[in-house]
From TrEMBL:
Protein name: Arabinan endo-1,5-alpha-L-arabinosidase
Biochemical pathway: Glycan metabolism; L-arabinan degradation
Entries under Pfam families matching the protein: Glyco_hydro_43 (PF04616)
Keyword Amino-acid biosynthesis attributed: no
Protein source organism: Algoriphagus iocasae
Annotated site location: Important for catalytic activity, responsible for pKa modulation of the active site Glu and correct orientation of both the proton donor and substrate: 164
Keywords: Glycosidase, Hydrolase
Similarity remark: Belongs to the glycosyl hydrolase 43 family.
EC number of the protein: 3.2.1.99
GO BP of this protein: carbohydrate metabolic process
C-alpha cells in the first residue's frame, strides 16, 4: 500500500463522513462527570415522595395547579434515570377520591409493596376539622392509582390534623407514621395495609409534621419538618431529626433531648440566609443512595427570587443535596440548600 493510501485511510477513519454511523458512547461523558444545580425540577413538586423501579426513579407530589407553567395536576408523577433530569409523566390519579366532600390530595407517600404500588395520601382542606389518610394502589409506578378509601380519619384515630403519611415495614409488619403539628404517631396496619390496627404510639411532639423514617447502622432515624411551609419567601420550614434503637422510641436528638419535648431535633436543613437562595426547605422524600454509596436527600423549597406562581400557588420546587453523615448524624452541607453547581449522583 502506498504512503498516500495509508494516510488517506487514517484520515477518513478519524474524520468519518457525516452520513456514517458510529458509537455515540465513545463521545458521551461518563456518568461521574454529570453536574447539576438546584432546582432539579420546577415549577412545583411539593411534599415529594421518590421511589426507584427498574431503570427509573419516580417522584410524586401534592395536588397543585401549576397555572401557566403547566396547568392542574392531581398528584403529579415525574420520571428520571439520574435524579437530575426529570420528565413529567402526568397525573398518577385519574379522578379524585370521593370519601370526603371536598379537599386536596396532599403529601403522597408511594412504596412498592409486593408487585404493586401503594400510595398513602392526605385528604384535607386548610383548617379541616376532620382530615384523613387514604390508600390508592396501582399496578405500575406511573399509575393510575385506584382509590381504596380511607385508612382512617382524624376523628376515627383520635389525632387532630391526621395528614402526611409515611409507610414503613419492619420484621414483616406494616406500619404507618403520620401527623401534622399535633404529634407524630405510629400505628401498625392490617396485613393488606388498608386499616390501622392496635394502639397508636406518639413518637414526637407538636412541633413536627411530614415524618420520614430510615433504618441505618442499628438506629431508626425519624425526620420531621418544623415551621411554616407555605408563606413564600417568608416560610420558616426546616428539617429536624432524632434517632432511636427502637422503632417505637424514644427518639433523641444529638443533644439527648426527646423529640416528644416539642422543640427538640437536630438540624438537617434550613433556609438560606439573606435575600437569595431557598426559603422553607422541608418535607423531605426518601433518601436515595447512589452507586458510589453516597446518600442524597430530595426535598422541596422556594426560590426567594420567585417563591410563587402567577396564580398565587407556592412555587415549591424539587431540591437535592448530598446527605452527610457525621458521627452518626445526617445533615446537608452548611445546613442550607446548595445554590452552586456540584457533582451529581452516580448511577452506572
Amino acid at each position: 500500500m502506498s504512503i498516500f493510501l495509508i494516510l488517506a485511510f487514517h484520515f477518513f477513519s478519524i474524520f468519518p463522513n457525516e452520513n456514517d454511523q458510529f458509537d455515540l458512547n465513545l463521545v458521551t461523558p461518563k456518568s461521574d462527570s454529570l453536574q447539576f444545580k438546584n432546582p432539579v425540577f420546577e415549577p412545583v413538586l411539593a411534599d415529594p415522595s421518590v421511589i426507584k423501579d427498574g431503570d427509573y426513579f419516580y417522584a410524586y407530589g401534592t395536588e397543585d395547579n401549576w397555572g401557566e407553567e403547566g396547568g392542574y395536576h392531581l398528584v403529579p408523577v415525574i420520571q428520571s434515570k439520574d435524579l437530575v433530569h426529570w420528565n413529567v409523566v402526568g397525573n398518577s390519579m385519574e379522578k379524585k377520591p370521593n370519601w370526603k366532600p371536598k379537599g386536596g390530595i396532599w403529601a403522597p407517600d408511594v412504596t412498592k409493596v409486593g408487585d404493586r404500588f401503594f400510595m398513602y395520601y392526605s385528604f384535607s382542606t386548610w383548617g379541616d376539622p376532620n382530615p384523613g389518610i387514604g390508600l390508592a394502589i396501582a399496578e405500575k409506578p406511573t399509575g393510575p392509582f385506584v382509590d381504596q378509601g380511607p385508612v382512617f380519619t382524624s376523628e376515627e384515630i383520635g389525632v387532630a390534623n391526621s395528614i402526611d403519611p409515611f409507610y414503613f415495614e419492619e420484621n414483616g409488619n406494616k406500619y404507618l407514621i403520620w401527623g401534622s403539628f399535633h404529634g407524630l404517631y405510629l400505628t401498625q396496619l392490617s396485613s393488606d395495609g388498608s386499616k390501622a390496627e392496635g394502639e397508636k404510639i406518639k413518637l414526637a411532639g407538636n412541633h413536627l409534621e411530614a415524618a420520614y423514617l430510615i433504618k441505618k447502622d442499628g438506629y431508626f432515624y425519624l425526620f420531621g419538618s418544623s415551621g411554616t411551609c407555605c408563606e413564600g419567601a417568608k416560610s420558616t420550614y426546616k428539617v429536624l431529626v432524632g434517632r432511636s434503637k427502637n422503632l417505637f422510641g424514644p427518639y433523641l436528638d444529638q443533644e439527648g433531648n426527646e423529640l416528644l419535648n416539642g422543640s427538640a431535633g437536630s438540624l438537617v436543613v434550613k433556609s438560606n440566609s439573606g435575600d437569595t437562595g431557598y426559603a422553607g426547605p422541608g418535607h423531605n422524600a426518601e433518601i436515595i443512595t447512589d452507586d458510589k454509596g453516597q446518600d442524597w436527600l430530595l426535598y422541596h423549597g422556594m426560590d426567594k427570587s420567585k417563591p410563587k406562581l402567577n396564580n398565587g400557588t407556592n412555587r415549591r420546587v424539587l431540591l437535592m443535596d448530598p446527605l452527610i453523615w457525621n458521627e452518626g448524624w445526617p445533615s446537608i452541607k452548611n445546613h442550607v440548600p446548595s445554590t452552586s453547581i456540584q457533582a451529581a449522583p452516580i448511577f452506572n
